From TrEMBL:
The chain crosses the membrane at residues 25-49, 61-82, 102-121, 141-163, 204-227, 239-261, 273-291. It is found in: Cell membrane. It comes from the Eukaryota. Residues 41-289 form the G-protein coupled receptors family 1 profile domain. It is a multi-pass membrane protein. Keywords: Cell membrane, G-protein coupled receptor, Membrane, Olfaction, Receptor, Sensory transduction, Transducer, Transmembrane, Transmembrane helix. PANTHER family: OLFACTORY RECEPTOR. PROSITE patterns: G_PROTEIN_RECEP_F1_2. It comes from Ursus americanus. This is Olfactory receptor family 10 subfamily G member 3. The gene is OR10G3.
């Protein structure tokens, strides 16, 4: 393939998700509200964790604050462009914008996978090694683990973006998806994509399988430790502590595995599944962690109530 052909394509057109025309306005308002509430909810958690002295020094809530930053980023990368698809007219995305969208989505998405693993490890130490927890999960280690997750995520995102856009794109420019993701973009390449597909499958497969296996292993140990607790109330509190994390991990990993770890198909279900990690999970995370976490709710009361509520437990 001549190099000149790789420069012919300067923009892509995202076809979006299929929908009945009569629902155009409803879907526009729906996803706009999803975006606003996602940003507001995650910003609220970030402020609570940063301001409340009882939370911002604890590893569990440092991880939660970082998760809120990631959710705000993923939502900003994907949802505004998705919302634009429900307005009139064709709105192309520049070639460079498509590269950036793919990079940042996989950068933040893989960082989120690593962070979920760190959160599971933190809960494992807190429940299975409670006496040594302050030593094993100190502030310095927590900061190092978070930094490592960001670095690993950036490397993963860069690898996927470089592999995808090193190929020439000279043909049709309609991406049959609502954002620039690897499977949909590769269909437009004017070259053999076999190596790309294999590397993508192995790379994403290793990240997802490793993180999920470590999370599963952590929660097997956590469950065994909880069942040894003699009081029902103690078991309930321990399960409640981990319930939010298990819920979030489930609704995040299942769609990701469906999209990337199966034979390639161009099914409408791909778009529906992709809405979970890109729009639904970032929206639900603040609700799940706030409604199921008594400490966050009490911290919110302290922040809103001011000094008069500092003594609440």
């Amino acid at each position: 393939m001549e190099r000149v052909n790789s420069t012919l394509l300067t923009e892509f057109i995202l076809t979006g998700i299929p929908y009945p025309l009569r629902l155009r306005m409803f879907l526009f308002v729906f996803f706009l509200l999803i975006y606003i509430l996602t940003q507001g909810g995650n910003l609220l958690i970030l402020v609570i964790v940063s301001v409340d002295p009882q939370l911002h020094a604890r590893p569990m809530y440092i991880f939660l604050g970082v998760l809120s930053i990631i959710d705000m980023g993923i939502s900003t990368i994907i949802v505004p462009r998705l919302t634009m698809n429900f307005t009139l007219g064709i709105k192309p995305i520049p070639f460079g914008g498509c590269v950036a969208q793919l990079y940042f989505y996989h950068f933040l998405g893989s960082t989120q996978c690593f962070l979920y693993t760190l959160m599971a490890y933190d809960r494992y130490l807190a429940i299975c090694r409670p006496l040594r927890y302050p030593v094993l999960m100190n502030g310095r280690l927590c900061t190092s683990l978070v930094a490592g997750a960001w670095v690993a995520g950036s490397i993963h995102g860069a690898l996927q973006a470089i592999l995808t856009f090193r190929l020439p794109y000279c043909g049709p420019n309609q991406v049959d998806y609502f954002f620039c993701d690897i499977p949909a973009v590769l269909r437009l390449a004017c070259a053999d994509t076999t190596v790309n597909k294999q590397v993508t499958f192995v790379d994403i497969g290793v990240v997802v399988a490793t993180c999920f296996s470590l999370i599963l292993l952590s929660y097997v140990q956590i469950t065994r430790a909880i069942l040894r607790i003699r009081t029902t109330d103690g078991q309930r509190r321990a399960f409640s502590t981990c319930g939010a994390h298990v819920t979030v991990v489930t609704i995040y990993y299942v769609p990701c595995a469906f999209i990337y770890l199966r034979p390639e198909t161009n099914s409408p279900l791909d778009g529906a599944a992709a809405l979970f990690p890109t729009a639904i999970t970032p929206f639900l995370n603040p609700l799940i962690y706030t409604l199921r976490n008594q400490e966050v709710k009490l911290a919110l009361k302290r922040v809103i109530g001011g000094p008069g509520t500092k003594g609440e437990v």
